[in-house]
# Entry
Amino acid sequence: MVKSIDWNQVWRDEYNKNLACRFNRDWVSEWTQKENAKSFLKCSEENPERIRNVIEKLQVTPASSVLDIGSGPGTLAVPLAGVAGHVTAVEPSAGMLEVMEEYARKNEVSNIDILQKRWEDVDVKEDLGRKYDVVTACYSLCLPDIHSAIESMCQASSDSCHIFWFAGVTGWERAMNDLWPLLHEKSYCCDPKADVLYNVLYSMGIYPDVQSYVINHSRKYDTIDSAVHDLKSQYCADSEEKQDTLRNYLLRQKTADWDGIEIGGAVNHVHFSWKVSPSDGGLK
Ligand SMILES: C[S@@+](CC[C@H](N)C(=O)[O-])C[C@H]1O[C@@H](n2cnc3c(N)ncnc32)[C@H](O)[C@@H]1O
# Structure
């Protein structure tokens, strides 16, 4: 007899292994520091193709209401607010929130409200109290129970849901695979990817449109010291000795045509989208 696979458990196991190998530092605590959040926004601004691509795929109009889950520093929420009627941003990290508020002010955008919570802690009925035409989570579903997170997305949507995620090993994970044995004397375990996500959706009776595409994503630093300073927390390089290991690794990646340091490369992105039916929602 063929045993059926519990894909939500596969997601949970891979998520937990990834968390454990990063010393239980989750991706929300990574952005608590405002400095890290600013650096994320700067990197997004240096790679505008990713933002343009996501915004095009959401097909937002001035009549649309949008729920942006894990909005970070407003990389999408702020430009989306320029097009949509209203945007609600859900973001748990204090540093990201502060930067998003500044970014919205700078762009003179006032049709955004912000809910400081993890998605898994949001009660759609109590905390949002409404439905949105477009519900999107872009590289932000860093949580163990993906099944419940998707159910809540369907509950919050009156029309479409979108998840953007990764396929295969990303450039920064290649570096983590190389560096973990050197820094931490163990292997790096990547987080669950689009294959697991597709199977979770399928097991829920959701058969999404799936689009895969490649975008180059790179981060440039003028000096090796600024690269080490920015990356040390992502690579859990807490001591001077570990920062030296990181520095030497980055120097080995240096290309001849740039005086500073450039990291990154091609990243495989996947866009899952589906329409909700009235029976998906729980809001009455
Ligand atoms: C990689 S950033 C992406 C930000 C933005 N969506 C974008 O595409 O530019 C991921 C964001 O998701 C947030 N995040 C991570 N786990 C989350 C969770 N369980 N619930 C809500 N937000 C989460 C993080 O705090 C971070 O701001």
Observations:
- Strands lie at 65-69, 86-90, 112-115, 132-138, 157-167, 209-221, 261-275.
- Residues 27-28, 31, 44, 69-72, 75-76, 90-93, 96, 118-120, 138-140, 142-143 surround S-adenosylmethionine (CB under 6 Å).
- The chain is about 40% helix and 20% strand.
- The CA atoms of residues 66 and 177 lie 36 Å apart.
